[in-house]
Design a protein that fits this description.
By secondary structure, this protein is mainly beta. Helix content is 10%, strand content 31%. The chain has one domain. It is built from two helices and 16 strands.
Length: 269
């Protein structure tokens, strides 16, 4: 169980992640020569990314990845995450906690991580434009790239009012540990429960043009939750590639567009 005093350690780690990501996600105005490298299943590592031992002209040093035992690794402060994919079309990189073993549902994430750890909101979400039917205007909305997965240690089972949001982990962990997927609102967290661990997953994120508030996912098995942890979570570098004050991703071309701050409504000018 994580007591209140333990959160001082968590907070120091979180601040370190924030400082690193501030540097990692700064917009860059310089360009390097195009080149490509590979490591394991990540076959196209190109700008802005680079591998540690690539030639100096490849990628950007702030986006450096490492290749360890033929596995691509992204280092965030003291934490190292395994890279699962890089999507240059929507400017996201998907990573997974190295402690998650797909065939062992008792394996837990090693690193405590929440979306607020990230310096910029656009690191963990991005603006997406879309056009409603029978409309000539483009509208914008924000897509969350991940959902929190919250492990709780409870001295007694949650009440019947909220138990559909609590997933029992008895089959893999113990009878006192429950998991919530999503952002719990007021009244969902029970007084007999304490936060043990928080991590992220992008497994249940809706596709573009399907917009919803990041509510809790209920009535899901822990096996499915563990599978979602094995899928990992996405981080966006779109805002770092923005050449103006603020950008959005245009559907369906996935082009980065500058956002006009003189627009006072959701309609993009």
């Amino acid at each position: 169980m994580v007591s209140t005093s333990n959160f001082g350690v968590k907070a120091r780690y979180a601040r370190g992640v924030i400082v690193f990501l501030y540097l990692f996600l700064l917009p860059h105005k310089t360009y390097s020569q195009p080149c490509s490298s590979s490591c394991g299943k990540i076959s196209n590592i190109t700008y802005p990314f680079r591998l540690k031992h690539d030639p100096d002209h490849c990628g950007n040093n702030l986006y450096e990845l490492n290749c360890l035992n033929n596995v691509t690794v992204l280092k965030l402060y003291d934490a190292e995450y395994l890279v699962q994919s890089i999507n240059y079309n929507n400017y996201t990189i998907r990573v997974v906690d190295p402690n998650i073993q797909p065939t062992n549902c008792s394996s837990l994430p090693h690193f405590f991580l929440y979306r607020n750890n990230f310096t910029q909101k656009d690191t963990n979400s991005y603006k997406y434009s879309f056009r409603r039917s029978n409309s000539t205007f483009d509208y914008s909305d924000r897509i969350d790239l991940s959902r929190p997965v919250i492990y709780l240690k409870c001295t007694s089972p949650p009440s019947n009012v909220v138990d559909k949001y609590y997933t029992d982990t008895t089959s893999c962990l113990d009878e006192h540990t429950y998991v919530i997927v999503g952002d719990p609102q007021l009244g969902i967290l029970q007084p007999q429960c304490r936060v043990k661990l928080v991590t992220l997953t992008s497994f249940w994120v809706p596709p573009p043009s399907v917009f919803s508030i990041n509510n809790i996912i209920g009535n899901v098995s822990y096996i499915d939750i563990h599978k979602a942890l094995g899928y990992g979570f996405e981080i966006s570098w779109m805002q770092a590639s923005c050449r103006c004050d603020y950008c959005y991703l245009k559907d369906p071309t996935s082009e980065i567009q500058c956002y006009d701050f003189y627009c006072k409504t959701l309609v993009l000018c």
